[in-house]
Amino acid sequence: MKNVYPLQFVPILKERIWGGEKLKTVLNKSIESVTTGESWELSTVEGDVSVVANGALEGRTLMQLIDESPNEILGTAVYQKFGKQFPLLFKYLDAREDLSIQVHPNDELAKERHNSFGKTEMWYIMQADADARIIVGFKEKSNAEEYVSNLKNKSLLSILDAVKVKSGDVFFLETGTVHAIGAGLVVAEIQQTSDITYRIYDFDRVDAQGNERELHIDQALDAINYDKVDTYKQYAKEVNRSNSVVDCPYFTTNFIPLDGEINMSKNGETFTVYMCVEGVFEIAYNGVKYSYKKGDTVLIPAAIDSFVLSGKASVLEIYIS
């Protein structure tokens, strides 16, 4: 493939009833509303396909690049496993208000019902207001009957586990985990390529027209994992090293506290994505330096086998192993 280089994409901005302005004030995104909830950084979800923002390939879509050069973009192992599908979706979220309480189906259920991947995901907390919290799973092992009873009585929150969070916390959510991002949080989210969400409670909110958002209570019943789950991930923060955070069948995420310079080598089997969650850094490749700041996301095509990271930053490194 000609013109291979680190690729940035035009953010796909999403209005949300719970969104705010922190994607601009914290992450420097060009938003114009006061209710922008999400910035989709890398996506091949139908109707929301990312477009290259820099260099010779500017204006081309990620799907076009994959279709023309799957091994060079995705990597040999990823292409063999997923075909010409980009298997992950990368986002930044700003929750001015609580998100709905929701759950995502597993691969089998999502395939059967929606011809889609499931939605295993992880959250990296980039910024947290005082007392901000998330909801992740049940306080104790539950069951469908108890869950439905509390849902009907509007007491669902009493059996769900609310956890206070701070900047740098990481949570790994397997499919079936009932969850919600709470108000006052900016989050980097890495997930399987899927937009399948079963919304089960929305705090009785209405939109500007007085309408409540659709709920998916019946669909969620057999998608929920009623066991108590441990979602919090502890991880090392050794400087200038790729510290393992999450290693699952769908993606591997490392945390790099960058302070100086690292020579990186890749084997061509997978693409790599870097999300800058703090600071600024550069990638030097083929005699050119590419600069990134907090809130930027960059795709390193699999065909790039060596490059140099430099700067002072906190960076998430994501690939498929």
TrEMBL record:
Entry-linked Pfam families: MPI_cupin_dom, PMI_typeI_cat
Alphabetical list of CDD domains matching this protein: cupin_PMI_type_I_N_bac (cd07010)
An example Gene Ontology molecular-function term: isomerase activity
Source taxon at top rank: Bacteria
Stretches assigned to the Mannose-6-phosphate isomerase cupin domain: 246-319
Gene3D superfamilies registered for this protein in UniProt: Jelly Rolls
Domain Phosphomannose isomerase type I catalytic: 12-115
InterPro entries in alphabetical order: Carb_Metab_Reg_Kinase/Isom, Man6P_isomerase_Firm_short, Mannose-6-P_Isomerase, MPI_cupin_dom, PMI_typeI_cat, RmlC-like_jellyroll, RmlC_Cupin_sf
Keywords: Isomerase, Metal-binding, Zinc
Protein name: Phosphohexomutase
Organism field: Flavobacterium pokkalii
Classification of source organism: Bacteria, Pseudomonadati, Bacteroidota, Flavobacteriia, Flavobacteriales
